[in-house]
Structures are given as structure tokens and as C-alpha cells.
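so the lab meeting is tmrw and i was supposed to have these ready like two days ago... anyway. pasting both below. for each one the top line is the aa sequence and the line under it is the C-alpha cells. i havent really looked at them closely yet so no promises
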Amino acid sequence: MEKIITIDNLIFEYSKSEGSENIRALDCVNLEIDEGSFTAIIGKNGSGKSTLAKNLNGLLIPTEGTVFVDGYDTADDDSIWEIRQRAGMVFQNPDNQLVSSIVEDDVAFGPENLGIEPEEIRRRVDKALEDVNMGQYKHKAPHLLSGGQKQRIAIAGVVAMKPKIIIFDEPTAMLDPKGRKEIMKIIMELHKEGITVILITHFMEEVIDADRVIIMHEGKVLLDGTPYEVFSQADVIRKANLDVPIMVELGDRLRKEGLDIPQGIIKEEEMVKALCQLKSQN
């Protein structure tokens, strides 16, 4: 499978006040991300996950090392426009991404800056709003919408630019459970359409359907693999002061109570199946 992002010995440091040592947020990160994949990146606050996200579309430039996005070096000023077209980004607070007083104008803002023809912009706006189930709100004012609806508009604005990659930097952090579920459904649908998805989150239930899970800890990659591979190392995750998915926690507790529950269960339906099999054996 073709690699759409290549990260080689990435170091990123934030500057402190004059005379003080810089803060190293990322320390020799090496990653490759497949085109069309769904990669979830998790970690506690300060782990470097959001800094990594911002290095993936040129919002931040490596202190050392390189980041290539679809073949373009993020440190190359002449390539930044190409990178931003290929790698869109959705942030935690949708209010920071909404720029217009009417929803359809807001979604059109990105394509307009790309110099797209007006007729094509209208098609893209309508399609993007339908993709996020917000077509009926195209003439509404964004400030009258709920937090979840605003985040869907922010996603539509990125989708309308037709990027190959969408980086979601904790897009559900400010939403209630219903809003989080709606946004995750949209993210999964975008992935099914072939968009490369990179999801930064701290909600464990949001990562179990990813192709790959990366756990960041103190600026480094602590674990990297499929959800089953990563969450089979629950003790390592807990030592990094992170939670594990509810079904992993439940499985551990049931085994301590003497029940023969298989290792590697991370989804609710898997736990139900295991419990039903256990009951049928007794």
C-alpha cells in the first residue's frame, strides 16, 4: 500500500523565554501512514499528539527531521499550498474555524481560496453539507447551531476542499456523548469513501474501529499496531496513565473473578459473544 505520510526522525521543540531551554514536544518520531487508512493517535495531555497533528500539514515545521505529505516536504515554503490542499485539518473548537455568517458561505470559503470555479464550488458545498447531514441548514447562521452541528459544518468546510487526508485534532472533545457519536459516524463514512483519516483523541471508544492505533507518551511513540495488538498491552498503557477501552477493563475484572474470558476483547459485541459461549458451556 502506498505511503501518503512519511515522518523521519521528527523532533519538535517549543521555544521558551530567552535564556531558557526549549521544550521538546516530539522526540525522534518515525512513522509511515498508508493512503486510505484510518489511524488513531492517543495520549494524555502533553504527550505530543496534537503537536504531531500540526506537523502533518505544515502548521508546525520540524525543529529536526522531515515530514513528507504526499511527496511534499512540509519544511519547503514553496510546497505548503500543495500540502494544505492535500491535508485538511479539523480542530477541537469549531468556533475557531467558522468564518462566515451563513453556513453555505462558510463551507465555500476553502474552495474559494483554492480558486475553484463558482459553479464547481456550489456543487462541492452542496455535496459536503449532504455528507455531514447538514444540507437543510445551508442558509442558517452558524452561531445559532449546536456544538455538534458547528463541528459538522467545520468538517464540511474541509471536505469541500477535497483533501486526500483529513486530520481530526480532538474533534469531539467539546461535545456531549450524542454529538461525539454523530461526528464519529461521519468520520467513519469519510474513511469508507477513501479519505485517509488521522484522528487525535483521548476517548478510547473512538479508536477501536481504527486500522491502527498509535499511543504517544512524553513525545515518543509508546505503542503502534492494530487496536487488538495495542490494547493487549493494557499494563503498558496503564503505566502511561491512560485508560483502556471499557471492554478491556471489564475482561480483566471478569478474569480476576475466575471467569474464562478470552484475551483481546475490545468491542461490546465480542464480550457479549464470549459471555454467551461461557454460559452455554455451564
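ok protien two:
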Amino acid sequence: MNEATSQVSVRWTRNLQFVGLDADKRSLVLDGLPEAGGEGTGFRPMQLLLIALAGCTAMDVASILRKQRQDLTALEVFVTGHRVEEHPRIFDQIHVEYVLRGRNLDKAGIEHAISLSESKYCSVEAMLDATRTRITSTCRILGDREAKA
């Protein structure tokens, strides 16, 4: 697939439920909350924005760490968006927490990978940065013993 020509569509199914499709016919359900007339069975659009940020940067960090030959066994990315008080659909702050597990992980290498993702590779982060959303991040490194607990 050529990234320059990515295309998606959204099709209304019922109430506030929609199905998003990409050119390869992969689908994702979008839905509103029941109190807003939805069924609460799918993702809300703002959740998808945070998922896209988490997925984009997780893929970057994992790829960079593999190239560094770090012994990464698990990676989780948690993203929390804080909405602007006067506009509940706009995030003014987003915090990204990376939780990494592995053996003898190099903290400096991990911080470098996160920095590269945030500043150079993750297009979702670049788009959010253009809106002046303040994005912060932290990372926790867990060893194998902690990963099994």
C-alpha cells in the first residue's frame, strides 16, 4: 500500500454506530456513548486518536530497540489525554507512559528510541504537536522477575 494514497471510509450502520474501512477492507467499529444515542459497542473517534498515537510510537520504539539488539520481551504504551475544559473534544495535554520488559535493557538506548519516535518518526505525534498539544512521556523498565509477577 502506498502511504501517499491511503484511503479510508466510514459507513453509517445504525443509531450512532459507524464502521470504518480501509482500502484493504479491514474494519473498525465506531460508536457513541449510550447517553448520546449510541450503543457503546465500539471506539469513539477521540479514543482512536490516542490509540493511533500509542500504536505509532510503540512500533517505532520496538523497531529501534530491535536494531539496537536490546533484549525486549514486552512493551506496553499507555496514553492519557486531558481535554480542554471548554471543549471536551480537544486534548490540550497528552501523557504517554512506556512500560518495557526485558533482560539487561539499556535505559539510555530506550530513552534515545523514545526521543527519536517523538521527534522524528511518529506522524501522529507530529500532527498533535502542530496543534500545540503538550505531550509528555515517562518510561518504566521492568526486568524478567517483575514481568513474571
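from a quick look at the 2nd one: The first strand starts at residue 8 and ends at 14. The mean pLDDT is 88. will dig more after coffe
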